[in-house]
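Structure ticket #2291
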Amino acid sequence: AGLGLSLWSGLIGAQEEDAEVRIVHAGYGIGPVDIYIQGDLAIEALEYGDATGYLALPAGEYAVQMTVAGGDPAEAVIDTFLVLDGGIPHTVVAIGPADQADIVVIIDDHTPPGSSMAKLSLVNVASDGIVVGLMLDDETALIEDVPFADASEYLELAAGVYDFSILAAGSGAEIASIPGFSAESGATYSIFAIGVDGEYQGMVFVDASGSDPDPVATPTEAASTPVIVESTPTTTGATSLPASMTPTAGTTPPPAIVATQLPATPTVMPTLPDTGAGGATKSGGLGGVVLLAAAVVALLGAATWHFGHLLPRGRS
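Resolution: structure written out below.
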C-alpha cells in the first residue's frame, strides 16, 4: 500500500518561529497507519519503515491520533498531544510493539558540520528494546550503548564512503548492515535501528543535505539495504491548514519523553580514498514516501509535509 495524505489548497508563508516536523513509522507489528491532527486526517496509510520530509508548522500543541489504516479515531492505537517548539526541527517516531504503541519525539540539530565533514547520530527504535551501537567494518566502534527509544549525540566524520554495522550491545552481534554508505560533505544523517530479533533493519535519514535539497525516500526490504531519506527544513512555504488544525490553546499534554540531539563533537576518523558513490542507493517512484514527495512538489513546489504523533525523545 502506498502512502497518501490529505492536502488543503492554498499556501501560507513559513513563519520565522514555525516548527519543523517529519514522521517515521517504526512501530513493528502495527501495519499501515492513518494519522489525525486536531481531528482531521493528515496522513493516510503510512507504511512501516516509511517516513516523511519536514513540514513547517506553527508552534503549539496539537491533538494527535494514530489508527490502523482505515480505522476509527475513537479506537486509536495512539491518542495524545504533539508539542511543537518554534524554530526547532522535530522527528516524530511511532514505535512498537503493537500492544505498546507510543510516540517518541527527537529534537534534531541541523547545524552544519565542519569543512569536508559529515555528521550522524544513531537512533534506537528497535521494538524489542535491544541496546545497540554502531561500528565501522574495520571494527572501529563509533557509537556505543544506545538504549531503546533514545539516540546518540551527533558524531562528525570525514566525508567519504563507509561500511557500517549496527550491533547488539553485550554480544556484539551484527543485527543490520549498511554497506557502501556515502557520507556527503556538509550533510547530517540519522541512522535508525528498527524491527525485532530476526527482522532488524537499518535506515539512514538525511536530516539536512549539503548539496541536494529535494526530499527522497525509499523503503528497505532487508537489513542490508538501508533507507535513504533526504529531508531539508521548509523555508519558503507549507500547505495551508484548516482552522481545526491550528494549535490548541490552554491544553496540558501528558508527560513527554524528550531527548535532545547534542551538537556534534568533532571526532578523528579515518580519511577514506575517493571511492565514488557507494551502495546506499536512492531509488525513486516506488516507495510511499516518494509518492508523497512527488505529490507535494507537484502541488506546492516546496518540500513535502506530514506529521504524526507524540512522545518526545531525542539524542542523548
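Closing remark: Helices lie at 288-300.
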